[in-house]
Amino acid sequence: MLIAGNWKMNKLRDEASVLVGEIVGGVRRHDEVDVAVCPPFVYLDMVVSACRESGVDVGAQDLYYETEGAYTGEISPPMLKSLGCRYVIVGHSERRNLFGETDRIVNKKLRAAYSAGLIPILCVGETLEQRDSSRAFEVLNGQITYGFEGIDDECIANTVIAYEPVWAIGTGQSASAAQAEEAHAYIRERVKDFTRGAIADSTRILYGGSVKPENALDLLKQQNIDGALIGGASLSAKSFCEIVRIAKALK
Ligand code: PGA
């Protein structure tokens, strides 16, 4: 089980410092549940320091796929690794929809993350319009197939997938446990189709989209849901830590 918080573009420096302090204080080290926070780039260094020895891991929200060079404003995978990041979110729907990130770019970012020794959290998910026109699985299939194109099994085994239906992100309207479980089972089958051995069985598939303490239990107890990627509710240490406790109780 992995519970990860995506802070997105929120919090000023002092607020970020208070939030991570409260999370580190509120999350007991559990072997059963991995916990990670993904702050904005500019706070990574501070958050990594605050999380040291706490058992809370740190991830970035994005990366660029080149290692170094003339790419003004971009952040490379080795930079994130050198700061102490363990995870990096790749292909979040906000990157795809607001910043034009295509599956081809997502594929390059995944490769770059593996090369630097980072664990990517690959986000996939359909829009409301795609769901309403019964194309949700087709969209997931495309995002997974093109996202993982040409990537070897060993790297796929080292990837976390997050199913985040776009219509559930930041809307307060989570997918139902049954809707999420159906999509997760489908994603696992797709991973099974293009990997060998038991990789798909151990692939972590997180659910994301309006997860909060009130709906976490229902979602996390589904067979194919292996954790959560949490946006809004991760900005409050109280609700984030409560979700971690709920996950722990399930184990
Ligand atoms: P939300 O965001 O929990 O605020 O819906 C989830 C995400 O976008 O990762």
Give an overview in words.
The chain is of the alpha/beta class. Helices cover 45% and strands 15% of the residues. The chain is built from 12 helices and 8 strands. It has helices at 13-26, 44-51, 77-83, 93-98, 103-115, 128-132, 136-147, 153-156, 177-193, 199-202, 213-220, 237-250; strands at residues 2-6, 34-38, 56-60, 87-90, 119-124, 160-163, 204-208, 227-230. The protein has an 8-stranded parallel β-barrel with strand order 1-2-3-4-5-6-7-8, surrounded by 6 helices. Helix 2 (44-51) links the parallel strand 2 (34-38) and strand 3. The N and C termini lie close together (8 Å). The structure holds 2-phosphoglycolic acid (PGA). The site of 2-phosphoglycolic acid (PGA) has 13 residues, from strand 8.
Q: Distance between the terminal alpha carbons, to the nearest Å?
A: 8 Å
Give the distinct bound molecules.
2-phosphoglycolic acid
Beta-strand content estimate: 15-25%
Main beta sheet: 8 strands, parallel, barrel
Written as H for each helix and E for each strand, in order along the chain, the element string is EHEHEHEHHEHHHEHHEHEH
Q: Give the structural class.
A: alpha/beta
Number of helices: 12
Report helical residue fraction: 40-55%
Which helices and strands, and how do they pair?
Elements: E1 2-6, H1 13-26, E2 34-38, H2 44-51, E3 56-60, H3 77-83, E4 87-90, H4 93-98, H5 103-115, E5 119-124, H6 128-132, H7 136-147, H8 153-156, E6 160-163, H9 177-193, H10 199-202, E7 204-208, H11 213-220, E8 227-230, H12 237-250
Parallel strand pairs: 1-2, 1-8, 2-3, 3-4, 4-5, 5-6, 6-7, 7-8
Helix pairs in contact: 1-2, 1-12, 5-7, 7-9, 11-12
The chain binds 2-phosphoglycolic acid.
